[in-house]
Amino acid sequence: MQDMTMRPRIKLIPSWLRLISKITLQLVFFFALILRAQPALAYCQATSCSSDPECRRNRETGCTTSGIPLSWRRGCIGFAVGGQGSPKTGISSDVLATVTQDAIEIWGGVSCGDESISLSLKYSGPVSCEQAGYQPAAGNANIISFVDEGWAYTSNQDDGASSSDNLGHTELTYDLATGELVDTDIELNSEDAVFSTEPNETEYDLLTVVLHEMGHALGLDHSQVSGSVMQARSGPGELRHQLHPDDRAGVCALYGGFREEGSCVPDGGLANDCAGQEILLPGDVSGKTEVAGCSFGLGPVRHNGAVLVSLLFLLCLAVWNRFCLGKEQDSFDVEK
Ligand SMILES: [Zn+2]
């Protein structure tokens, strides 16, 4: 009896049970690390600094932490499409119009609590002007158009992407003092990418790209949340036709609450023809406004640091199990 009470308690636990307990604890710790590594809802609002790669960003969310936050202050904006479509890839302006209206319905259909978003989105029809930019002294249009030749933009990702490494580009013209958006234009890189409404494994889904760029047009920046429309990259054949809760949270943060719809006509009236007018392009600063842009990266989503840390942890776990746990079990067996 005395001998029983003096015996070390651990010897009453079979070695196989100790092994299972340790592995279970390690797995719990590992999955806790994975869950901790996934960012919480982390939509980002574009700021006047978003297009600058040197701009300071939150290390966890990637959101810009400086600059003036950008958003529309009016109650309604319209989107027009370029009347040429894409002769190079055979996509008509009618197809682009249908996709644009689908994107308008998806973003405009978001509910924030019991109410829809307070920014009405309308389709303005096709326009002959396909020049992105802002006309300070004339009419304007928020144009969505293809660029079959002369794609000029580089991705503003931190991986040094080349000019052919992005699918779309959104220009934002805003009031320098207040961050109020006054114009936006979306260009689609049909020079380097093949778009389709039914993409195969080498083509890019048109609605996925337009939906993403329209998010920028509303004032959202890239999100690091996996599966969100505002994630920075998209691979060929990939479809994202539904907003992620993170996308909805972002648009509701900017446009929740009530506001009068008012006029949907852009500054200076809706411009069909832009010939002969002064047009401000990205980097141009007038007395009142500045034009900036953001590009949608082409290619698969990059693995983030959390995944690499997790893989390293798994490797360490395997090594620890092989050498440390194995030795401990040996010593237990010898003692017994
Ligand atoms: Zn983007």
How would the blueprint of this fold be written?
Blueprint: H1 2-6, H2 15-37, E1 44-45, E2 76-82, H3 93-108, E3 111-112, E4 115-116, E5 120-127, E6 143-146, E7 166-175, E8 181-188, E9 195-196, E10 204-205, H4 206-218, E11 220-221, E12 233-234, H5 245-255, E13 289-298, H6 305-335
Parallel strand pairs: 2-5, 2-6, 6-8, 9-10, 12-13
Antiparallel strand pairs: 1-11, 3-4, 7-8, 7-13
Helix pairs in contact: 2-6, 3-4
Zinc ion binds next to helix 4 and strand 13.
Number of strands: 13
Helix content: 25-40%
SS element count, helices: 6
Count of structural domains: 2
Query: What string, H for helix and E for strand, traces the elements in order?
Result: HHEEHEEEEEEEEHEEHEH
Instruction: Report mean pLDDT, rounded to a whole number.
Output: 78
Low-confidence stretches: 1-6, 34-39, 298-311, 326-336
Cofactors, ions, other ligands:
zinc ion
Q: What structural category do the secondary elements indicate? A: alpha/beta
Strand content range: 15-25%
